[in-house]
Amino acid sequence: MSEAGADGIPAFWQWWASEGSALAGQVVAGQAGPEILAPLTERVAAIDPGLQWEFGPGRESLHLLTVTAAGNPELRAIARAWLQAAPPSDLTWGYADLRAADSGAAESTIEFAGRTIALGDFVVAAHRGSTSIDVAVHHPVFADVGEDEAAQLTYLALDCFLGEEATETWIGGVTWPGEPPLDSFPLRHLGSIVRDFADGHRDADGAPTWLMLRGTGPSGLPVLAMAQVPLRQITFPLFDTHLAVTIPYADRTAEGLPAASSLEALRDLEDQITEAIGADGRIVAHQSHDGVRLLHAYADGRTDAGERAAAVAADWPEGDAQTVVTPDPGWALVNPLAG
Fold first, then answer.
1. How many Å apart are CA 293 and CA 298, to the nearest integer?
2. Dihedral sign, Cα of residue 201, residue 205, residue 208, residue 212
3. I want to staple 79 with a disulfide (CB 3.0 to 4.6 A). Which of 36, 91, 97, 103 is the partner?
4. Would you say 275 and 283 are in contact if contact means Cβ atoms under 8 Å apart?
5. DSSP state, 7?
6. 65-115: pLDDT as tens digits
7. Residue-wise pLDDT tens digits, 39-64
8. Distance of CA 56 to the CA centre of its chain
């Protein structure tokens, strides 16, 4: 998160309290045109130019102001920081950093590039994988628009029917064919499939489950990995910094994997690191190969969680454990383990 962006957040909320909410109230009440909200656009852009804002109906408040990263993982942390600095919701205004699903999407239309598009005409084919659902989305208007426009409409429709969080958490590959897939069904039914899929990947407390992965390393020895499902930054938006803890272990099997005594010690070390970083980070995966375990954690880069993790690892008795701290807001460094 840039320093300029962090500075823009308190300035935004000061403006919102002094005049912004009153101006927004005039617009949503139809008493003024949207042009009077140019200062809102300017103040959101001052946080980061890539952020987008919109008004919508709230659940507990009459209106909802959403400032979203709009699918850009590098902006999720700052959007969440904006939300965390928001005032408490009241009867008039609530706040969000992710677009919510529209319960009336199937009966709604949108204006796009001079066309009126019925959301209810979207269809989709869905194919479940081990950790995500690949989808092929089609609308009759795709025959008349370009590739970029079809892509924009596809992601807009997914957000409308699923909400931004579910789309980015559970939807994997996305295509937008020019013809409806043979096994397609109305897009409005995809939500129930995604909810069922998500329920199968959460533990009793609602936290991500873990998946075991096995492969072969360059030396021909096996690589054994464990990773949370889903392995996506949207599950912990503020954790934008990768902590790579490389841990050599002494007690190993003939295949180079940790044997009993080292395995117990590695588990104890993970517990110590988890305790040290606390609410400022999370271990999300680890992989073991040829006598070395690589522990992947993510943390809030505004904190000293990386230093705390490194201090714990430095006391590892079976070799020289190293910790490397790298900004990685999109969690690209663990993408190969995403399943």
1. 16
2. negative
3. 97
4. no
5. H
6. 999 998 888 899 999 999 999 999 999 999 999 999 988 899 999 888 888
7. 999 999 999 999 999 998 888 899 99
8. 21
Residue 265 phi/psi, 5° resolution? -65, -40
Q: How many CA atoms lie within 13 A of 234 on its CB side?
A: 20
The owner of tokens 């040290």 is 276
Handedness of CA 177, 180, 181, 185 (dihedral sign): positive
Sorted by sequence, the CB contacts under 8 Å of residue 125 that are 6+ apart come out as: 135, 136, 181, 182, 183, 184, 185
Half-sphere exposure of 238 (CA within 13 A, CB side): 15
Q: What is the pTM of this model?
A: 0.86
Enumerate residues 6+ apart whose C-beta is below 8 A from 38.
none
Q: Is 224 exposed, middle or buried (0-12, 13-18, 19+ CB in 10 A)?
A: middle
DSSP calls for 26-91: HHHTTSS-GGGGHHHHHHHHHH-TT-EEEEEE-SSSSEEEEEE-TT-GGGHHHHHHHHHTSPPP-S
CA distance 333 to 310: 18
Residue 25 corresponds to which amino acid?
A: G
**DSSP symbol at 16:** I
